[in-house]
Design a protein that fits this description.
The chain is an alpha/beta fold. Helix content is 34%, strand content 19%. It is built from 9 helices and 7 strands; from the N terminus they run ααβαβαββαβααβααβ. The chain has a 7-stranded mixed beta sheet with strand order 3-2-1-4-5-7-6. α3 links the parallel β1 and β2. α1 packs across α8 and α2 crosses α3. The longest helix has 19 residues. It starts with 50 loop residues before the first helix and ends with a strand.
Length: 327
C-alpha cells in the first residue's frame, strides 16, 4: 500500500489539516496538511502527479511543522538521545527535513511508496544542506513494517497515513514494534476542517465550506469501508496508542494561521485542492454550488480564489504521542 502525504488529499477526513505527508508535509482535499502524506497506502490517487501540490502544501505548513517538531523534542526530553527518526508516509520530505533540523544528531529516514516523491525528499535535503543525515526507504504499508525491514528508531512519525490502512489498530501495533525501548511514536490524525473563505462569498448560497465538509465526510467513510481488511474502530487515538503498548500518551494541536490577503503560493495550493474536489464531486453537490465553485476557480474572476482579497488559510492538526516502555 502507499502512504498518504500531507497535506490535503482526496480521501482525507475533513477533520484533517494539511504535512506530510500528506503526510506528512504535510490530506485529502480540504483537510489534510501535515505534508500527509501519500504512497504507502491503497487508494486511487496518483501521488506522483500530486507531488508539486504536496510539496507546496507542506511548505505552506512549515510554521506548524516546526512547532510540531519542537513540541515532540520537548516531549522526548533532554535525557533521551534521538539517533534515528522514521517519517512514515513522508511524501516529498518536507517534514522529514524539519525533523533533521530539529534533531541535529539524528539520521532521518523518509519512508514512502512512491519513488518520485522520495527523489523529491532527497533533492530537498540536498538543497537545505541536510543530505548527509536524510535518507529514503521505498516501502508500502503495512507490509513495509514487517520483518524489521526498516530497522528501529527513537522517534517514529506518521501523518495522515494510519487512517488509509484497513486495520488502524494493527498499523499502530506495527509502528510500535519499530520503536526502540523508550522511543516515541507520534501520529497526526484529526484536527479541524481547513478554512479559507468567508461564510458568505457575496454570491451563491452561504455556507459552501460546511457543505464541502459533509461531502468529504461521506467520501472518507466510503474510503474507509472500501479498504482491504477494513476494521471498524472507535477512533480514540490515545486509547489506541495505549492498546498498542505505549505509556504517557498525550495530545497537542498545532495551528496554521495565514491571514488575508493570502500570498500566491497559498492561493495556488487552495485552487488545486478545490479543483480536485470539484472534479470528484460525482453529482453530490447541487447545480448552484457547482456554479459557485466554477466562479471561485475562474482565474480571471475578481471574486475567484486567485484574486479576491479575503482569502486566508486556517487549519489545525492534532498529534497523538506515546512512549514505548524502556523494558
Amino acid at each position: 500500500m502507499n502512504a498518504p502525504k500531507d497535506p490535503g488529499q482526496h480521501h482525507d477526513h475533513p477533520g484533517h489539516a494539511p504535512g506530510h505527508a500528506h503526510r506528512h508535509g504535510g490530506s485529502h482535499t480540504q483537510g489534510h496538511t501535515h505534508g500527509h502524506t501519500h504512497n504507502t497506502v491503497a487508494d486511487d490517487l496518483d501521488w506522483e502527479l500530486l507531488a508539486t501540490h504536496l510539496e507546496t502544501g507542506g511548505e505552506l505548513h512549515l510554521p506548524a511543522h516546526r512547532s510540531t517538531a519542537a513540541r515532540l523534542r520537548e516531549l522526548v526530553g533532554p535525557d533521551r538521545q534521538v539517533r534515528r527518526v522514521l517519517d512514515i508516509g513522508s511524501g516529498p520530505g518536507v517534514m522529514t527535513c524539519v525533523f533533521a533540523e530539529a534533531f541535529p544528531d539524528a539520521e532521518v529516514v523518509a519512508v514512502d511508496g512512491t519513488p518520485a516523491l522520495l527523489d523529491r525528499a532527497l533533492a530537498r535535503a540536498e538543497r537545505l544542506g541536510l543530505a548527509g543525515r536524510v535518507s529514503v526507504r521505498h516501502a508500502r504499508l503495512p507490509e513495509g513494517l514487517a520483518d524489521d525491514a526498516l530497522g528501529t528508531a527513537d522517534l517514529v512519525w506518521s501523518s495522515k497515513a494510519v487512517h488509509h490502512l484497513g486495520d488502524q489498530q494493527g498499523a499502530l501495533d506495527a509502528l510500535v514494534r519499530v520503536l526502540r525501548p523508550g522511543g516515541m511514536l507520534a501520529v497526526a490524525e484529526g484536527g479541524l476542517p481547513m478554512r479559507f473563505l468567508p461564510r458568505d462569498l457575496g454570491f451563491g448560497r452561504p455556507g459552501l465550506q460546511t457543505r464541502l465538509d459533509a461531502l468529504q465526510e461521506d467520501r472518507y467513510q466510503a474510503m474507509r469501508a472500501g479498504l482491504p481488511g477494513s476494521v471498524p474502530v472507535v477512533e480514540d487515538w490515545p486509547a489506541m496508542l495505549r492498546r498498542a503498548g505505549l505509556t504517557g500518551t498525550r495530545a497537542f494541536t498545532t495551528l496554521l494561521d495565514l491571514p488575508a490577503p493570502l500570498g500566491e503560493p497559498g492561493r495556488y495550493f487552495l485552487h488545486s485542492q478545490l479543483t480536485r474536489l470539484r472534479d470528484a464531486s460525482d453529482g453530490s453537490l447541487d447545480a448552484p454550488d457547482m456554479e459557485t465553485l466554477d466562479r471561485l476557480l475562474d482565474p480571471a474572476a475578481p471574486e475567484g480564489l486567485r484574486r479576491r482579497p479575503d482569502v486566508f488559510l486556517l487549519s489545525a492538526a492534532t498529534v497523538f504521542a506515546g512512549t514505548r516502555p524502556a523494558r
